[in-house]
# Entry
Amino acid sequence: MTDVAELTEVELTIVTIQFDAADNKALLAVLSKYIVLTRMVDGCRNVDLCSSVTHPGRHLLIQKWESPEFQQRHFDSALMVEMAESCAGILSGPPEVGLWDGTSAHDLR
# Structure
């Protein structure tokens, strides 16, 4: 019999990308397209977009990937390159990228 913990164990690679917009409307258009297409990529568990209440024009993408390999493959993809190139001239500075492990309460025992 398989242990329930084994069945629910999920390894996630999480990426955050923070953008500060010089042209908020244009950035949201770019990110909206990117999110829809990224959600269809193999290994993508989810992509969320959060917009700051305290810093207008600041947006955060939160991506969850099944493994580091899927995440890296996506970062090397034409879709990622297209999104980055589409951000030219609409950001107030370079985006800030973070790479995270998906620690759960289960891991803290």
User: Anything to note?
Assistant: DSSP finds four helices and four strands in the chain. Residues 66 and 72 are 11 Å apart (CA to CA).
